[in-house]
Amino acid sequence: MFDTLISPQDAAALWLTLKLAAITTLVLLLLGTPLAWWLARTRARIKLVIETLVALPLVLPPTVLGFYLLLMLGAQGPVQAMGGPAFAFTFTGLVIGSVFYSLPFVVQPLQNAFVSVGDATLEAAASLRAGPWDRFFTVVIPLSLRGFLTATTLGFAHTVGEFGVVLMIGGNIPGETQVVSIAIYDHVEAVDYGSAHVLSALLLGLSFLMLFALYAINGRFKLTTA
Amino acid sequence: MSIDLHFDLRRPDFHLAIESHIPARGVTALFGRSGCGKTTLLRCIAGLEPAARGRLVVDGQTWQSDDTFVPAHKRPVGYVFQEGRLFPHLSVQGNLDYGYRRIPVSERVVLPEEVIDLLGLDSLLERRPAELSGGQRQRVAMGRALLTSPRVLLMDEPLAALDAISKAEILPYLERLHDELSIPVLYVSHSIDEVMRFADHMLLLEDGRLRAEGPIKELTTRGDLPLARAEDAVALLEAEVLEHDDEDHVSILGINGARLTLLREDLPVGRKVRISIHARDVSIALTPPRDISVLNCLPVTVRQIHEETRPGETLLTLDVSGQPLLARITRRSLRALGLEPGMQVHALIKAVALVE
Asked: How far is A152 from chain B (nearest CA, A)?
């Protein structure tokens, strides 16, 4: 039945979107955790600049971000000039673009969670012989689970919904860089409202479910830790 | 065993500069007003103030010097914070185990069963910190710190955040710690009542400096220090329960030969107790008066006559069989009796309180 509702190309776009969102979220958690930890702890003046840069994707038109990434990662761009491959119009390029695009959605919840753990609890752990890594894994992470849940959900959901950045940097190559949001745009352009409906409804449902789960779980957390 | 320390820590509005040699046995109180630096000093000892410069040698081991700084998690101290600071994501058992698991098996001197029993934690083990009362939380915090088998236990006003009922609940446990464990304790407090209950030795801090240090009995009765000059100044004396008189419902205590009578206390004969006598409850007589309702009249020697605490009122340090006692009398009485240091007189004591 799924096959009759959705064309193989749309299915590929859907699969690509989910894969992109999953990989991007994973990369963001790996890079965002140390970055958020540093932002939560540091008193360096440069913190303000880094925080601003991290927040920029919140306000910048995605096309602007995509445009600069295209210049950086494209043929004859600085990355290629330094011996790197041309990432533009590849899946890897999409991941890089998405990482920048969704960065604040992962870093900010983590940073807030880390700040709220507080020095007091960490000092207590130190006085009980826990070294810095030990403290991070046995105190910070367990006390930041809500932050991680929020960061994961928002990072994933936001990446699923991106359009401008992928269009600029990924182009629209079916099966390679075509994501659902662009496929929907194509269907509407071609006045194929039926296909647009199916994909839109899927995305709407998926986004609703993810956010609903997030709020439900966070609400439960509140009840048990209050 | 001893703690040699010398710290210098500058903050925009505060300068801590303290050098001391603390006997690491019994309970040493770090006493002073809020903001005098007592908590900061404790944090320096725990390694929680990396900005502090100086030297710290505990039991022959250098924890800090110009070129050494042993990080907090490598110092064998137990720290009981004012607000407990239990881990909210762990049960009471998990909190107790946290430090215990992190010390080598060979260094585990204090055992969980012992601590659970000593602090009455048995029924709380499965609970989360959020489900505990303030007093229970502090007991868990003490247990957690003790289970690291610390060389010194640092307690930062563990009772300050508690209401009167929780305080009363936790005090007996603190006394048991004092009596049953041989771990030296540094106890930060701004409450003289607390200090008098447990402390043996005292560091008196003022504006980041060490004003005086010594045995608590000496410091509370030194006429040049604010403690003895305060309105509610008291002297602490060590006494022993000699006998009970059930007919009159009184107990007799002995202070090296001198006898004190007070209303019957339920204590075994032979028990050593700590008593407090307010300076304002002590009067002086040249000869033992007769026909007077005051029961306690002790022969004493006038040790020192201090500056007036307020116009017309003077403070005396007396000697009762080697222990200092304070008396507050008027300038007029001082002159009328012709009191001089070295004179043998009698102290009439209106009220005696057991501290323990």
From this structure: 21
- β-pair partners for B244: B251
Domain definitions of chain A by residue range: 7-225
> Whose structure tokens read 């894969």?
A19
Q: Which of B73, B86, B87 shows the shortest C-beta gap to A126?
A: B73
Is A225 close to B73, i.e. CB distance below 8 A? Answer: no
Q: List the structure tokens of B62.
A: 């250098």
Higher pLDDT, A191 or A219: A191
Chain A residue with the nearest C-alpha to that of B84: A124
Cross-chain residue pair A143–B72, CB shorter than 8 Å: no
In B, minimum Cα distance to A126 occurs at B73
> How does pLDDT run across A81-96, given as a tens digit for each residue?
887 787 888 899 999 9
Q: What is the topology classification, in CATH, of domain A7-225?
A: MetI-like fold (1.10.3720)
SS3 B349: strand
Are the Cβ atoms of A127 and B74 closer than 8 angstroms?
A: no
Give the CA angle between residues A147, A150, A155 to the nearest 5°: 120
Using an 8 Å Cβ cutoff, are B92 and B84 in contact? no
Interchain CB distance below 8 Å, B102 and A127: no
Task: Check pLDDT > 80 for residue A5.
Answer: no
Nearest to B89 among A123, A129, A143 (CB): A143
Give the model confidence (pLDDT) of B6-42 as tens digits: 999 999 889 999 999 988 788 899 999 888 999 999 9
Q: Is A45 on the interface with B (CB under 8 A)?
A: no
How many helices (H) and strands (E) chain B has is answered by 9, 21
The residue among A225 and A103 whose pLDDT is bigger is: A103
Can you give the pTM of this predicted structure? Answer: 0.83
* Whole-angstrom distance, CA of residue B2 vs CA of residue B242: 35
Interface probe for B, chosen from A127, A139, A222, A225 (most Cβ of B below 10 Å), is A127
Residues 6+ apart with CB under 8 A from B281: B349, B350, B351
Determine whether the interchain pair B102/A128 forms a contact, defined as Cβ–Cβ distance below 8 Å. yes
DSSP A204: H
For tokens 């105190």, the residue is A139
Domains of chain B: 2-219 (3.40.50.300), 234-354 (2.40.50.100)
